[in-house]
């Protein structure tokens, strides 16, 4: 009798445990699906602003920096806390001409050794495939801009023969406007393209010059921080490029990353595969970005 009671008790316990396990199996997927639902509702897709044009800085952004500005300031006898062009303009005629010759000599040397920044060609191609207007604002000269375009000529970026940057604003060629960070050039570009400045993106390597220029015009800004110098300055508590009024909307370590971050932060027109640029360009960036984003 005792054995029979024990057997019945054991059987009941096993049945009860089985019911509990089955109940758990039903509850667990429900819990997971509810978590997924919560996560989905919390991760509402962000509205990415639409960009209708990109404005580039040249030296240190599209080209590898090869001008020693410290040497230029010293040779021109200008304090490094001053704006070199403004300081030279205030000098007596003879000193001004000497300083201008030094700058021209150094810039000529820079043109001779000019190299495209790694990722420059691919970024330009990526934007041109989408028919995004491109402009350039530099304190360098039109001859240096010409050398940059020469480096891009014969490549996919300019294969259709159009000017790569329109307008390309330099310090010595019309339209002559106040230099960066004065926002006049950005307003001029927006007016020429018939878009708002808040639909433009400024890409440059200087927080105090390029980012401030974009911010002053209410444009979006992308800081190219190749040595992570500006980011590290910010982390140390310095002015840097990551904080304050010169804080960029997006910071990239290298131009190769720029198309990915553009796609992540902004809305751009889709590639024009039927158009001339898109049909002639073997752009693998689009496929890479689509593949990467789909895996996020
Ligand atoms: Mg620069």
Give the helix/strand layout:
Blueprint (H helix, E strand, L loop, with lengths): L1 H41 L10 E4 L12 H7 L8 H6 L3 H20 L7 H10 L4 E4 L4 H11 L15 E2 L14 H10 L6 E5 L2 H10 L3 E5 L4 H7 L14 E3 L5 H8 L10 H5 L4 H10 L2
Parallel strand pairs: 1-2, 1-4, 2-3, 4-5, 5-6
Helix pairs in contact: 4-6
The structure holds magnesium ion.
In words, what does this structure look like?
This protein is an alpha/beta fold and 296 residues long. The protein folds into two domains: 53-65 and 115-273, Rossmann fold (3-Layer(aba) Sandwich), CATH 3.40.50; 67-112, no CATH class. The chain is 49% helix and 8% strand. It contains twelve helices and six strands. The chain has a six-stranded parallel β-sheet, with helices on both faces. The longest helix is centred in the first third of the chain and has 41 residues, at 2-42. The chain is globular and about 105 Å long. It starts with a helix and ends with a helix. Bound molecules: magnesium ion (MG).
The helix content is 40-55%
Strand content: 5-15%
If strands are numbered along the chain, what order do they take across the biggest sheet? 3-2-1-4-5-6
**Cα Rg:** 29 Å
Give average pLDDT, whole number: 78
């Amino acid at each position: 009798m005792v054995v029979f009671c024990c057997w019945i008790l054991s059987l009941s316990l096993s049945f009860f445990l089985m019911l509990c396990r089955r109940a758990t199996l039903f509850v667990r997927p429900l819990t997971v699906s509810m978590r997924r639902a919560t996560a989905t509702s919390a991760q509402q897709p962000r509205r990415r602003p639409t960009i209708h044009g990109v404005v580039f800085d040249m030296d240190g952004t599209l080209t590898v920096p090869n001008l020693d500005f410290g040497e230029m300031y010293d040779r021109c006898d200008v304090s490094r806390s001053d704006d070199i062009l403004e300081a030279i303009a205030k000098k007596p005629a003879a000193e001004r001409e000497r300083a201008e010759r030094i700058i021209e000599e150094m810039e000529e040397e820079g043109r001779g050794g000019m190299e495209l920044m790694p990722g420059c060609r691919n970024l330009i191609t990526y934007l041109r495939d989408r028919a995004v207007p491109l402009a350039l604002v530099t304190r360098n000269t039109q001859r240096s801009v010409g050398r940059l375009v020469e480096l891009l000529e014969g490549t996919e970026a300019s294969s259709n023969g159009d000017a790569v940057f329109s307008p390309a604003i330099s310090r010595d060629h019309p339209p002559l406007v106040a230099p960066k960070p004065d926002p006049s050039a950005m307003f001029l570009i927006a007016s020429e393209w018939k878009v708002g400045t808040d639909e433009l993106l400024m890409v440059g390597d200087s927080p105090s010059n390029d980012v401030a220029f974009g911010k002053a015009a209410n444009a979006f800004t992308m800081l190219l921080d190749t040595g992570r110098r500006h980011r590290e300055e910010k982390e140390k508590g310095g002015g840097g490029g990551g904080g304050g009024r010169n804080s960029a909307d997006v910071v990239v370590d290298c131009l190769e990353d720029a198309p990915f971050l553009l796609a992540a932060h902004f809305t751009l027109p889709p590639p024009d595969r039927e158009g001339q640029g898109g049909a002639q360009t073997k752009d693998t960036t689009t496929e890479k970005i689509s593949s990467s984003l789909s895996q996020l």
